[in-house]
## 1
Amino acid sequence: MKLDELLNRIPVSEIIGDKNQEISEMTFDSRQAVEQGLYVAIKGTVSDGHDFINSAIEKGAKVIVCENIPTDIKDEITYIKVKDAAKTLGHVASNFYGNPSSKLHLIGITGTNGKTSTTTLLFDIFKMLGFKCALISTVEYRIDEEVIPSTHTTPDVIRLNQILAKAVSKGCEYAFMEVSSHGIHQQRTEGLQFKIAGFTNITHDHLDYHKTFEEYLKTKKRFFDDLSSDAVAITNVDDKNGNIMLQNTKASKKTYALKTMSDFHGKITEVDFNGMLLNFNGKEFWTTLTGKFNAYNLLLAYAVAIECGFHEDDILPTISKLKRVKGRFETLKSDGGIFFVVDYAHTPDALENVLDSINEIRTKNERLITVFGCGGDRDKTKRPEMGKIATKKSTLAIITSDNPRSEDPAQIIKDIEAGVEPQFYSKYTSIPDRREAIKMAIKFAEPKDIIVVAGKGHETYQEINGVKHHFDDQETIIELARLMSK
Ligand SMILES: CC(=O)N[C@H]1[C@@H](OP(=O)(O)OP(=O)(O)OC[C@H]2O[C@@H](n3ccc(=O)[nH]c3=O)[C@H](O)[C@@H]2O)O[C@H](CO)[C@@H](O)[C@@H]1O[C@H](C)C(=O)N[C@@H](C)C(=O)N[C@H](CCC(=O)O)C(=O)O
Ligand SMILES: Nc1ncnc2c1ncn2[C@@H]1O[C@H](COP(=O)(O)OP(=O)(O)OP(=O)(O)O)[C@@H](O)[C@H]1O
Ligand SMILES: N[C@H](CCC[C@H](N)C(=O)O)C(=O)O
Ligand SMILES: [Mg+2]
């Protein structure tokens, strides 16, 4: 593609060199630069891409997009000065891949919890309705039947455009993607044309990155601020910050809620471990998904489908057929009659929701045992909060490891323990080895007791010191429950 075509409608401050270069590929990583390529220099959290301009040139890059033109300008290289290189990258990537987001219906879901669940439910609904779709999520990326391993919840904007372009070429009409706060902050969605944006909720997470809750909130809001006037913004008004998302958006505004007056209103009529009887805008239906948070996720998915132009008579029977999402409130029962819930709750709010959902369903004759930990090299402030919630809401909490990464597992556990209130000191024990912790829970449990194993959900590894060891909560439960019932 010709450079001037690539720069179509992109504001630039200065160009030095040939504007007619032919571009073979584009990248923001000098290590990936190729002959006749374009390199965008971005300031990151660790290093500054401007320091790697010459290494990109050594690897063959002929066009450099940067915020500061280097002093040692090289012949045959075109330098393009822009105000914001990360922002420019998004628009260049869209142009390079033929603006795929404008050729399908792109739906983005943001919020602290519920993004994977809601996007996956939407993918499944639209697939059942007969459409080819794409999914970009924490668990996996999908282009119709093709599954691509996921590296980020929201990948970088080049990858995003590559996936969307492939989806378009394969005939996908819808793409559902998670929009993480890191993704918004690092402008990974810049230049994408969203048809619908959905907000789930906002609670405590990622403060290691965003520093304050206000900054975190502002970042989420930016996603809605950047929508165009032909987009639709759908927010959860039961969340106290739900309306903030709509404050400055040009998109048409829609609301959903279980408790507050809203355009899409839901009610849980009945709930147990097998599912829920729900009522959406006056129409009742059964779902095998369970727990209040799943009612929210289904309601948002329903709202998106209606805003896409479908009729409730087509959507509700489809929702009724949905299966649970991998690692999200997945239930198992051992031969010995112990009940297990595997859930990806890794934030205080998610853990509280899962335990509340179970407490709402259980008769209180059974005991509730919670096995959980907190990730290393991640927001430390959530640790004591999760310790407090787990001990308060369970009969017994077993604190263990969940991807300690470069941190000392014993220290992470101490940080969690620090949040336990004195009256609950007798309600927990700590076992750093996750397998041993699950084993202890099974030993302690009697028939009908409920064991929640939280934090890892679909993950199949335990990351210790940069090494990912195979570990799967569900697999471990099945293996131990069988061994121990012998
Ligand atoms: C903290 C963070 O988000 N970092 C992301 C960021 O990297 P960075 O800012 O640290 O990059 P850097 O190392 O400072 O480099 C700056 C620039 O110089 C370039 N460079 C660097 C070295 C070199 O030799 N040559 C070169 O050109 C880099 O390519 C980059 O463009 O930009 C990279 C490219 O897009 C991301 O891969 C990387 O994600 C890291 C791996 C990561 O772990 N991110 C997690 C925290 C994340 O993004 N999570 C969210 C949310 C999770 C959720 O809640 O579900 C997600 O969306 O996945
Ligand atoms: N709507 C919701 N409200 C509150 N909690 C939820 C909601 N949906 C799911 N959860 C809880 O949060 C956990 C994570 O859900 P999910 O993976 O869908 O969220 P996510 O936003 O994709 O998270 P991540 O930021 O890690 O990608 C679930 O396992 C469940 O415990
Ligand atoms: N997207 C989240 C997932 C956390 C999952 C939990 N198992 C952990 O490793 O902390 C993060 O990377 O912070
Ligand atoms: Mg996710």
## 2
Amino acid sequence: MKVVVSGGGTGGHIYPALALINELKKNNPDVECLYIGTENGLEKGIVKRAGIPFKSIEITGFKRKLSVDNVKTIARFLKGVNLSKKYMKEFRPDVVIGTGGYVCGPVVYAAAKLKIPTVIHEQNSLPGITNKFLARYVDKVAICFDDAKKFFPAHKVVLTGNPRASEVLGQDGLKGRNSLGLDMNKKTVLIFGGSRGAKAINQSVLQMITNLQDKPYQVVYVTGEVHYDKVMEEMKTKNIASQVIIKPFIHNMPEVLAGVDLIVSRAGATSLAEITALGLPSILIPSPYVTANHQEKNAQAIADHHAAILIREQELNGQVLLSKIDEVLLNDDKLNEMKTASKKLGIPDAATRLYRVLTSVKNKK
Ligand SMILES: CC(=O)N[C@H]1[C@@H](OP(=O)(O)OP(=O)(O)OC[C@H]2O[C@@H](n3ccc(=O)[nH]c3=O)[C@H](O)[C@@H]2O)O[C@H](CO)[C@@H](O)[C@@H]1O
């Protein structure tokens, strides 16, 4: 079986694609995969690191207002379609799947035009512009939230969940803790701002970091690759407790997630799929800079079930964040209640469900 996978820009689109590739390999040892992304999204580094053959096209997103940039985007799109067709004629995939981000547009469109079976995977309850555009050309649309159904042709929609949920299960949390040099006996909070880091979260951590000195728990704080140097510069003036570990990015996130007790993060859909699959409690600070405020909707759905505490960015500061972390980590009853609630929201067999969708479209043609 040969599969082309495309998804890019941010980790939320890339990691589900990699989780699907792992599921394909598990079921199909001689499967061959080709990943098509861009040179400048996070995918290039992450996919190469995973050892998967990678080819690139150039693409940018549409601006909401009329502009000359949009003319350039159309030209790039058409060029991307032609290059994708070339890649596909060489590779001859049985099926092509897009997991979101602009790059999927030309790749999946090209495949549909070549009459290759196609699937798109939408992680969010509110679909992105690329998936809305592609929905009319593809064979199946895999979704993670019932709410997303209404945006797509009903006969194409299948609720699968996010394959990254399956991938984080059964991981060795002790290995994750060891990889960061963490104390095995202390509770741990992991703080990160999505795959790219978040300025607002970084500022709050800087405000509260000196107050972590006497806490009975430890902290893993991920700044985001692009913010790391600036954060570390500001940290020079702070008194940092020994139980705080600071990293620019975590590459073995499934293991690390399996080894921690509480998450503080943005409310990207892939992170939430991971958190709920593992039954982790969370403090969510949705990014207000996303289309139609979709992260707040994601976070609210989890908070409504008492599995998360929601802090809006405008209410966030170091003191608020620290008090919420204390509220959960220093109270075992609360921690356990949130764990149970979180676990109920996960879709642990999402990878198998998505794999079935892929094989069903492949076999139909
Ligand atoms: C600003 C923006 O447009 N954000 C979107 C993007 O978020 P973003 O890319 O931040 O996506 P998510 O939070 O959903 O997922 C992040 C992924 O990166 C991984 N990770 C993160 C940090 C790290 O150090 N190491 C690591 O491996 C996480 O485990 C997870 O697998 O895609 C999501 C899924 O479509 C959307 O819901 C978000 O709204």
